[in-house]
Amino acid sequence: LAAGADYIAPYTNRIGNLGNGPFELMAHLSNRIVEDGYDCKILAASFKGVQQVRDAFNAGSQAITAPVSVLKAIFENPSISKAVTDFNNDWYSVYGEDKGLCDM
């Protein structure tokens, strides 16, 4: 933390496989960042499932990097699918199907 890093990347699954508690580590790091006033963020990595991602965010991670399979599992939710569909339909009704945000 004191080295001036912008991000710390704890490897969640690897830490767990070594018999340690990755989420306790993230919570400890998050507390130290706040207590000591560091300008650093936790970018958790190395996930095998959705629950690990949830636990990482609950432990204080501000960002993650995860395999596509885990990201797809996160977004395989009927409520999220409906929200995305509704948003897209609203966007298309206002801006058209061939317009993106960068085209504005």
The oligomeric state is single chain
Question: Mind summarizing the main beta sheet?
Answer: 3 strands, parallel
What gross morphology would you assign?
elongated
> Could you tell me the number of beta strands?
3
Give the ordered list of helices and strands.
EHHEHEHH
State the helical fraction: 40-55%
- Taking Cα atoms only, what radius of gyration do you get, to the nearest Å? 18 Å
Unreliably modeled segments: none
- How are strands sequenced across the largest beta sheet? 1-2-3
Strand content: 5-15%
Structural class: mainly alpha
Structure description:
With 104 residues, the chain is mainly alpha-helical. It is built from 5 helices and 3 strands. The chain has helices spanning 12-17, 22-36, 50-58, 68-75, 78-95; strands spanning 7-8, 41-44, 63-64. A 3-stranded parallel β-sheet has the order 1-2-3. The model has no long low-confidence stretch (mean pLDDT 91).
Give a quick set of tags describing it.
about 100 residues; mainly alpha; 5 helices; 3-stranded parallel beta sheet
Fold topology:
Blueprint: E1 7-8, H1 12-17, H2 22-36, E2 41-44, H3 50-58, E3 63-64, H4 68-75, H5 78-95
Parallel strand pairs: 1-2, 2-3
